[in-house]
Automatic annotation (TrEMBL):
The lineage of its organism: Bacteria, Bacillati, Bacillota, Clostridia, Thermoanaerobacterales. This is Tetratricopeptide repeat protein. It comes from Carboxydothermus pertinax. InterPro entries: TPR-like_helical_dom_sf.
Length: 117
């Protein structure tokens, strides 16, 4: 099998989302992991965090989201125990992610929530 293409990435993401809609978390995890190998981006990381959390693997959810923003900045350490803050709980369920963005020419810390929510 040759290198993965953009088409492969889209196929894996679509299949992962379809599996989630059908309630098949394990199949979704497999598709999102394949998509992650094809393209490391925030959408894949959020989807993986969600399926890891749903399969009771908070440590993996934490690790996949860690590059998107440091939990040390928010003072919650949920690699070993579940988050207690509202932001931490939402982040662990991949309903929000914390990061930095340039807004009006300034670097700002932002919380991003999917439009469909």
């Amino acid at each position: 099998m040759g290198p993965m293409t953009n088409r492969d990435f889209e196929k894996f993401m679509d299949s992962g989302i379809s599996s989630l809609q059908k309630g098949d978390i394990l199949a979704a995890r497999g598709y999102f992991e394949k998509a992650f190998k094809a393209d490391d981006n925030v959408w894949v990381r959020n989807n993986l965090a969600y399926v890891y959390y749903e399969t009771k693997n908070s440590l993996k959810a934490y690790k996949i989201l860690e590059p998107l923003g440091s939990p040390y900045d928010d003072s919650f350490y949920w690699a070993k125990e579940e988050p207690t803050s509202t932001v931490g709980k939402l982040w662990a369920k991949a309903l929000v992610f914390i990061g930095r963005a340039t807004v009006s020419g300034r670097k700002e810390k932002v919380a991003v929530i999917a439009v469909i929510l």
